[in-house]
Each structure stands twice: as structure tokens, then as C-alpha cells.
Specification:
- The chain is an alpha+beta fold.
- Helices cover 26% and strands 28% of the residues.
- It has 14 helices and 28 strands.
- Strand 1 and strand 2 (28-35) form a beta hairpin.
- The longest helix is centred in the last third of the chain and has 17 residues, at 490-506.
- The chain is globular.
- The chain starts with a helix and ends in a 12-residue tail after the last strand.
């Protein structure tokens, strides 16, 4: 029995399937069948594919030119002169198909198809909404594809438009870009409207949206899809342009929000109120694609939380450069970098900067690299040394709420300890360094209003994590009189940076000092510290 006949036998077990027909092409079997005499599907089995215990799956396509069900793909494909629409029945990443044989795969696909076709009205609506942007973007009919940067907390606002080399940015007015000089501010009119209740809002599937669908969102008292605040704002707006853009922010999974937009063209540029203009003067409504690219959203997409902290980093050697970069990757958009040194070639392969920047200021080069990671990342690079005389004023002037030291020199940390006493209540202070021949990273965190300093807390930390004195001869490299480097590489830095990020995240909830050890072999360990005071911090 070939695979096509095996499929037909499986198909016959379900009474809802009927009108089964088998045909054969040069490279494939086509088995057509109906579900409850409504939808007609085709099961496509390629002859040269082994479906037993491999990642390959047969295709399920719908023959009807129909969009009555979610997960019917909108763009048809041409097979042997006939058009079909694919049916999306599973998410690849959620399944492992190489563990199943052909019969198990077939039973899985048919069960998924039945689930799809037996959804309730509300369940169908939810599925359409889950794939909202797919259907919306598939119906885009104008050549306008803006990159959208919005503040998700805003209920309603007028948006700014910027243009560079044919690309548009549309942004909330409180978004600060680090490359704004390269963009031209345009006079387009657009509004962001936050949808509170998405019930009944279906993307364009069977028919395109018209102004009627827009008004059902904005003026439907039965569903309260927008807040009364937004409604009152819209009522007060006067439209003086012949075209406006509306961007809708709609709830999505896990508190995320999707943005979709449309352009409304009016018959003339006469001045009327927003709702009057929509009700009487609309010439056309066109759908456009957009890409939400704001810092908050991109962090949400990978599970990060957008941190509004203003972080200062003192010391931009190997560990400091890794910390600066990974803080941005973890959701920090505002940094202040302090180092009076230039990048040297000996440290290139354990520094986040590359060979191009050799001989240049670490702080200025890191500012350039970090700001290129995203236009909302704002970094100030100071080619200067932090000392006991300037540290407090620097924190106050730049409104730094977390000050990170990656100096690595215990003597320098001690010199700063007394001055840091004046930072209590101003900011959280974090010390991060490498010890034990460059094998273990430590991060000592002193929350904003807690007691203790580097000197007395490190003494406590040394008891909890005693220093292993057996130093290997080859753990140091001498580069001439007085120039000594610890021999460690990328693996150590990744481990130490991981420990730092762990400590940084904890600092948002902790009130007492704590030490985090990050060991290549033993992983992360954490311990609370209690200061008894010392002559530096005079805590007690």
C-alpha cells in the first residue's frame, strides 16, 4: 500500500470527511476530500520524500477560493496549473516531527484540521486576531511602509513623521532619537489611538475595510473599544489636511500591543471636525504595512523588560565594555561611560570594541557602537577619570540612579569608598570585578538606601567566598616593567557578565547589600551582606 492509499484509509475513519478522490501527478499524489460538504481540501504527498521519522510533512491545502476560516493563507500557490491556498495547522517550533511516522503525522494533521474547522464564533475571532497583522499586511495597497516608534503607555497622541532616503519614521513626541540630525521632520498628520477592547474587531479577510469599520471602533458605545478620554480628544480635533493616517494600538498576547495603520484620503482639504470629516468627506481608505521598532516593543519581543534606569559605568576595560553592551541588550537605553584610556591591541579579543578603534578613546568609541544598536539608545561618553572629588557631582548632574564600577583595581576602589558615602540615597552602587587568576567574577551591590561600602562589605564577601591563594605561574602575563595582565579570555568575561546582569536585575527589588559570585565551573551564587560599618563609611 502506497502512502496515498494509507492516507485514504485514515481519512475514512472520520465521518465528516467525504467525496474522497485520488489523482497522481509526475512527482506527487493529490487526494481531495470534503469536510461536512463545505470545504474541499487536497492532501499533497510528494513521491520522492520519505515521511517516516523525518522532519518532512505532507501539505494540506484548501481548494475553495474561501477565507471563511482563520489560518487559510491569503496568497494562492499554483500547482500543476491549479491554484490552492495553504492551510497553517501547526507552529513548527512547538512540534518535533522527526519522531513521528507517516501515519502519526497524518493523524496529527487531520486532528488539527478538525479543531480548526470546529472553532466557535468567538474562538474564530480570537484566531483571526492572533494573526491580525498577517491579514492586515496582506491587504496593504499603498506604497507606504513606516517604521513605528511609539510609547505604549500613551492612550492617544499626534505623531511626528521623519524622512531619510525614502524611509519614514513615525514616532511619539516623547521618543528621543540619537540620530535625529540625519532625519527631516515632515508635516504629515497621524494619530495613535489605543484600543482597549478588541472584541468584534476582525482583520480584513472576506472584504476590505472601509470607513465604516473605523467608525465602529471609534463610535461604538456598545463595546467601548476606546476610552472616553480618547473619544473626547478625537471630538475636539479639527482636520485641515486632505489625508491623515490612523495608527491603532490593539492588545495582543502577554500585554504586548500590535500597531496597524491606514491612510484616509478626503475629497477636499476643507476644515471640519474629525468625526464630521470621517462621516461626510472620505474619498478612500487605504491599508499600509508598518513595522513597530520602538525600544520597548523589541525588548518585549524577546522577554526583556524596558529599564528606565540611567546607568553610569566607570571603567571600560574588558569587563566594563561587555557590561555596557549587555546592559543595552537587556533593556537599558541610557548610559554614561567614564574612562580616560584608549583601546590597546593586547586586549582586543576580550573587549567588545574591535581593531578599527585601536588607539582611540574607549568611552567615545563605545558611545558610537552602543548608539548604533538602536536609535533610542542614548549614551554619553566621557574621556575622564572618576575620583573622590568629582563622583558625587557627576551622579547628580547626570541623574544617574545606578553607578557601576568595573575598575578591577582594589586600590582605586578603596580610594573611592569614602567619597561614595555621599551617594547614599542618591543611587545604587555596583562593583564588578574578576579574581582568582581571572576565573571568577564577583558583583557587589549596595542598594540606594542601604548601609556599607566597598571596604567593609568586601571584607564580609571574602569570608563568604574566600580567595583561593594557589595562583598558577602562568595566570599572569608581563608586558615590561610594571605592566602585568591577568590571563583570561572570552569565556571568563561571558560568565562574569552573566553574574553582573543577574545582580543588576536583583537590584530593583533588594534593600540590603549582596554579593554575587559567577564561576565558570560552579555557576552563580548569591549571599546577603550585613555591614557593621568601618572608618570609610561610618555606617554605625
Amino acid at each position: 500500500m502506497d502512502k496515498a492509499d494509507a492516507f485514504i484509509e485514515i481519512l475514512k475513519r472520520e465521518k465528516a470527511f467525504s467525496s474522497i478522490k485520488k489523482s497522481e501527478k509526475e512527482r506527487a499524489y493529490f487526494i481531495t476530500f470534503k469536510y461536512n460538504k463545505k470545504f474541499e481540501f487536497t492532501y499533497i504527498i510528494l513521491k520522492d520524500i520519505d515521511y517516516d521519522y523525518t522532519a518532512y510533512m505532507p501539505y494540506v491545502v484548501v481548494n475553495n477560493d474561501s477565507d471563511d476560516s482563520p489560518h487559510f493563507l491569503t496568497r494562492p500557490m499554483d500547482l500543476y496549473g491549479k491554484k490552492y491556498k495553504g492551510v497553517c495547522l501547526y507552529e513548527k517550533i512547538m512540534n518535533v516531527f522527526s519522531e513521528k511516522n507517516f501515519e502519526e503525522k497524518t493523524e496529527f494533521l487531520l486532528s488539527q484540521l478538525i479543531k480548526l474547522l470546529t472553532l466557535s464564533k468567538r474562538e474564530r475571532e480570537i484566531e483571526f486576531q492572533n494573526e491580525f497583522l498577517y491579514y492586515w499586511n496582506s491587504n496593504a495597497n499603498i506604497d507606504f511602509y513606516p517604521k513605528v516608534f511609539v510609547d505604549p503607555q500613551n492612550e492617544f497622541e499626534s505623531l511626528n513623521y521623519f524622512l531619510k532616503n525614502g524611509t519614514y519614521r513615525v514616532a511619539s513626541k516623547d521618543i528621543v532619537f540619537n540620530d535625529l540630525k540625519q532625519w527631516k521632520l515632515m508635516g504629515n498628520v497621524g494619530f495613535l489611538i489605543k484600543v482597549e477592547n478588541k472584541e468584534g474587531i476582525i482583520p480584513p479577510v472576506n472584504k476590505k475595510w472601509s470607513v465604516r469599520e473605523i467608525l465602529l471602533i471609534l463610535e461604538n458605545p456598545d463595546h467601548d473599544r476606546i476610552s472616553s478620554f480618547v473619544y473626547q480628544k478625537l471630538k475636539k480635533i479639527e482636520i485641515r489636511k486632505k489625508k491623515i493616517d490612523l495608527f491603532f494600538s490593539i492588545p495582543y498576547e502577554e500585554n504586548r500591543r500590535l500597531i496597524f495603520g491606514c491612510r484616509i484620503m478626503f475629497k477636499n482639504a476643507g476644515v471640519k471636525s474629525f468625526f464630521e470629516k470621517l462621516q461626510t468627506d472620505v474619498e478612500s481608505l487605504n491599508i499600509f504595512r508598518s513595522s513597530r521598532e520602538d525600544f520597548s516593543y523589541l525588548n518585549e519581543c524577546i522577554g526583556n523588560k524596558d529599564s528606565r534606569k540611567r546607568v553610569g559605568i566607570v571603567g571600560l576595560g574588558s569587563l566594563g565594555s561587555y557590561v555596557a553592551k549587555e546592559l543595552v541588550n537587556s533593556g537599558v537605553r541610557t548610559e554614561f561611560l567614564f574612562d580616560d584610556d584608549k583601546l590597546q591591541s593586547e586586549n582586543l579579543f576580550r573587549h567588545s570594541l574591535n581593531y578599527v578603534y585601536e588607539g582611540y578613546s574607549k568611552s567615545k568609541c563605545l558611545k558610537y557602537c552602543l548608539e548604533n544598536m538602536h536609535p533610542e539608545v542614548n549614551v554619553e561618553g566621557f574621556n575622564m577619570k572618576i575620583n573622590s572629588k568629582n563622583v558625587k557631582s557627576i551622579v547628580e548632574i547626570n541623574k544617574i540612579d545606578t553607578l557601576v564600577f568595573c575598575i578591577g583595581s582594589t586600590d582605586e576602589q578603596m580610594d573611592l569608598s569614602q567619597a561614595l558615602r555621599g551617594l547614599k540615597g542618591l543611587c545604587t552602587v555596583i562593583f564588578s570585578w574578576l579574581e582568582e587568576g581571572g576565573r571568577v567574577g564577583y558583583t557587589l551591590t549596595i542598594p540606594q538606601n542601604s548601609n556599607g561600602c566597598y571596604k567593609c562589605l568586601k571584607e564580609k564577601a571574602n569570608i563568604i567566598f574566600p580567595y583561593k591563594t594557589e595562583k598558577k605561574v602562568n595566570s599572569w602575563l608581563k608586558n615590561g616593567c610594571g605592566a602585568v595582565r591577568t590571563k583570561y579570555g572570552n569565556r571568563t568575561l561571558l560568565t562574569a557578565t552573566n553574574g553582573f546582569l543577574y545582580a543588576f536585575e536583583k537590584s530593583k527589588q533588594r534593600e540590603e547589600p549582596y554579593i554575587v559570585s559567577s564561576d565558570i565551573e560552579e555557576g552563580i551564587k548569591e549571599h546577603k551582606l550585613i555591614s557593621n560599618g568601618c572608618e570609610y563609611c561610618d555606617t554605625l
